[in-house]
Specification:
By secondary structure, this protein is mostly helical. Helix content is 48%, strand content 4%. It has 2 domains: 95 residues, Glutaredoxin, CATH 3.40.30.10; 153 residues. Strands 2-1-3 form a 3-stranded mixed beta sheet, with no helix packed on it. The radius of gyration is 18 Å and the shape is globular. It starts with 14 loop residues before the first helix and ends in a 7-residue tail after the last helix. The chain binds glutathione. The site of glutathione (GSH) has 13 residues, from helix 2.
Length: 279
């Protein structure tokens, strides 16, 4: 069921070609891994029915996952001024590599259905909680420190996968102490989401904010995979990433990740997003 790195269903354009186009182009990275920012961005665009041209991150002939895989992303850096995905490019406007800018652009291009609550208190809460997931030092940001902790402490020095984990560890400030702080932070964020979902259920809402779908529900659905990926028939991701990078072996986080939070992810995918996830 899982697909390999050379078996992608989406047709990804090269950056040089995408730069010559107008309209909406999204640098997604051509790999079968449900990156939380990537799937968040795809989810927002899907709900809004916005069509786009998918673009790969690496230079022609280079791997797409990260610079540490040995390739080059110099064309992405030249175009967007940074080296991560996703990036949304609209006509000749400055490419947007941050999730807040991406949501705001999507809202502008397709105002309905709005994924940003109209009430100021709801909006402030939504962006605050979304930042706990996607922002710097948010859940999926710091999960990278746990992701590299195992491999950096177990892979032999000459293992071909080691440079990838070394690259990510150096880029995001890995140390064993930072990994422990990350685990506690993730637990606390998951607990905060669980409390928010319980409050919403108590007032009769099926959604994390207000009474209808917001970007936060999509972000939770997309980010949950980093701790608890969907099964292969719904998410045919590369097997090598399932269980280690996308999974959790910390009992404190496991206890916080309640059945209600897992069910909420499943509900949002089944009701508003696409199955199976396409890569
Ligand atoms: N641009 C995002 C971060 C996106 C991100 O980190 N994406 C991952 C893939 S899901 C990535 O490109 N990782 C490779 C790297 O960090 O070098 C943000 O800062 O809001």
């Amino acid at each position: 069921m899982a697909i390999g790195f050379d078996d992608l269903k989406i047709k990804y354009e090269e950056i040089a070609d995408a730069r010559k186009m107008s309209g909406l182009r999204v640098v997604l990275g051509a790999y079968p891994i449900p990156g939380p920012w990537r799937e968040s961005c795809k989810g927002i665009l899907h709900v809004k029915g916005l069509k786009y041209v998918p673009v790969r991150t690496g230079n022609p002939g280079s791997p797409d996952v990260a610079l540490g895989m040995g390739g080059s992303q110099s064309q992405l850096i030249e175009w967007t001024g940074q080296a991560s995905a996703p990036v949304m490019a609209w006509n000749d406007e400055k490419p947007r590599s941050g999730w807040v800018d991406q949501l705001n652009l999507a809202e502008r291009l397709a105002p309905e259905p709005s994924l940003v609550p109209a009430k100021v208190e709801d909006r402030a809460l939504m962006f605050g909680l979304a930042n706990e997931l996607l922002g710097e030092h948010g859940l999926v940001w710091v999960k990278r420190l746990l992701m590299v902790h195992g491999p950096l402490n177990s892979l032999p020095a000459d293992d071909p996968q080691r440079p990838f984990f070394t690259y990510l560890g150096e880029k995001y400030g890995y140390s064993p102490e930072a990994a422990e702080r990350a685990a506690l932070r993730i637990r606390d964020i998951v607990l905060a989401f669980d409390a928010q979902l319980s409050r919403q259920k108590a007032r009769g809402s099926k959604y994390l904010i207000g009474d209808s779908l917001s970007a936060l529900d999509i972000y939770w659905a997309a980010c949950c995979a980093i701790l608890h990926p969907l099964p292969p028939e719904q998410c045919p991701m590369a097997d090598a990433f399932r269980g280690g990078a996308y999974g959790n072996d910390d009992p404190r986080i496991e206890a916080a990740l309640s059945p209600a939070l897992r069910d909420h992810r499943d509900f949002i995918y089944a009701t508003h997003l696409e199955f199976p996830i396409v890569f």
